[in-house]
Specification:
The complex is a heterodimer of chains A (291) and B (388). Chain A has a single domain, classed as ABC transporter involved in vitamin B12 uptake, BtuC (Orthogonal Bundle), CATH 1.10.3470. With 291 residues, chain A is mainly α. Chain A has a two-stranded antiparallel sheet. Chain B has 12 helices and 14 strands. Chain B has a 5-stranded parallel β-sheet with strand order 2-1-3-4-5, with helices on both faces. Chain B has a 4-stranded parallel β-sheet with strand order 7-6-8-9, with helices on both faces. Chain B folds into 2 domains: 197 residues, Response regulator (Rossmann fold, 3-Layer(aba) Sandwich); 148 residues, 3-Layer(aba) Sandwich (Rossmann fold). In chain B, β6, α6 and β7 form a beta-alpha-beta unit. Classes of the chains: A mainly alpha (291), B alpha/beta (388). Chains A and B meet through α1, α8, α9 and α10 of A and α2, β7, α7, α8 and α9 of B.
Chain lengths: 291, 388
Amino acid sequence: MLGEFLQYLFSGLTSGAIYALVGLGFALIYNASHVINFAQGEFVMLGGMGTVFIAAAGVPLPLAGLLAVLMATVVGFALEKLAVEQTRNASVVTLIIITIGASIFVRGGAQVAFDKQFHTLPSFSGDTPINILGATVTPQSLWVLGITVVIVLLLQYFFTRTLLGKAILATSHNPMAARLVGINVNAILLMSFGLSAALGAVAGILITPITSTNYEVGIMLGLKGFCAAILGGLGSGFGAIAGGVILGVAEALGAGYISSEYKDVIAFVIILAALFFMPSGLFGKRGTDRV
Amino acid sequence: MNSVLSRRALLAAAAAFGMLTVTAAPSSAADTIKVGTFLAVTGPASFLGDPELKTLQMYVDKINESGGVLGKKLELVHYDTAADPNKAVTFVKRLIDQDEVDVLLGGSASGETLAVMPMVEKAEIPYISFAGARKIVDPVQKWTFKTPHTDTMACQKIFEDMKKRGLTKIGMISGTDGFGASMQAECKSEAGKYGVDILVDETYGPKDTDMTAQLTKIKATAGVQAVLNPGFGQGPAIVTKNFKQLGLNVPLYQSHGVASKKFIELAGDAAEGVRLPAAALLVADKLPDSDVQKKVVTAYTAEFGGKYGAESVSTFGGHAYDGLMLIVDAYKRAGSTDKAKVRDALEATKGYVGTGGVVNFSATDHMGLDLSAFRMLEIRNGDWTLVN
């Protein structure tokens, strides 16, 4: 009985960590621009697919991963430079729609540049499951969890302790005032798109050994990551993690104790309920409007 | 200004349409046989449509080089449906009314095939589908035939093998995609006939990242002797990995939906010992020389694999090969391009040896395959082995 419960918990943690990692990317861009970047899932796909294909060309795996992250970062820069920046004064909704368009474009491009097959990467430290009180967890899940925590801590440090991080926060709160105190708002936006693309790509590399990847894997991951970010409170790093883990565990417990048919329903009901009672998410800042 | 804009729009539209058709320049109708085809070359079912189209193009060229059929060249007219039944209906309408094709091949997925069937029956054109569903040929429609085996047959083949091993109490975990859901239903209705009890019946979304919760539930169900997983794409590979992770010590059966080398690659070591039914094409090099299909499947593997790489050979391309060859065979026996005569010749096909099995069409059977078309395979040392 305990073994089963633990197993549901571990399987929830595995998917939860994946959702959290993707959700972090949403939080990052939202922090800088209040834009919800629906191409975030595509960055995840680029990380995984990029690594697979660069490695297939004979590049050693760690280097291939690095190159894939760089490639995704460049795509992130390009998205900001070529699409978001061109519509400087457009409303946030317009920008969000632009990111949806960009995600379709990237997906189509990947279909041509890579291929339409599924691919996978070897696990970082073997496939031997670790047994804890009758439940098992794969080392790769621990990698995902661990690196997610590390990334959140780094981001936390970055946003509260470094000038650049504070500049990003300032830009998100009031772009005009940020500009007046000498912050290069365009450069900040450019950087946050690049950073979140890199983050997405890292997520893609981490989860590919677990889930495998193909050109359209970003759709569902993006959606679940978005849910995690919303549930935790948009813009909050810890919120995205909490949101992701709650979502994953709810799905797993739902599938285990109620019915796997209703797994997603259970998760989405929790999100609806959370947003109904706490519209800005679990860890989001309450929004106030000046009249 | 306006005229410039509209001209530009027209050009763009023309370019868009141009990209949809992959055909060569048109030639006069009299000396060609127009083969219309609509396949899911892009979109979610592109892994079906892509090898199908490549196969058709390759063998149409080959047939034309060696003189064509009845002294006429074959002309392939293709549209990409992206597995969207609505697009399929539009394109088939165009193939029938505008392109005036002599014969129709395709429909990579069952949805698009079922959507166009009424139109094809009305237009009275011989039609061979490459899709799986039993509904396509049951009840039999006069002008519609199909080459792939059905999910029902896969279930029967699996249950037959389970019975042989004395496994009668099983758990099922199925994908909720069209393929998984359809096979889940078929297996549940077939299980009784083989004396197999389904003790626990779980599902997962086709894009889910972890299935250990469902498998834990199966593991906790007392008396499960084997697990069956209908589905395709990444899902079954994750199920297989999770299955090993949880240390389930019962045989795992996968469906023909993952019958490609890709599955072994994705599931890795966890795939060892997994059994699944598949067409002979997959194990071309392992068939005994006495096997009737040996010649045709080795030839197709060599030709298609030679051009597009050995790992791109799939049963889906094989379905297209069978469709094209069946229709060419029917033309030769009919000795004319009259649609009714070709259809009758097609229905009279007996003992055609294809990549999918030995085809015997009749007035009551427009698929023409029996269970021998499926081979039971087991994955050993990262490769297929035949189970007898």
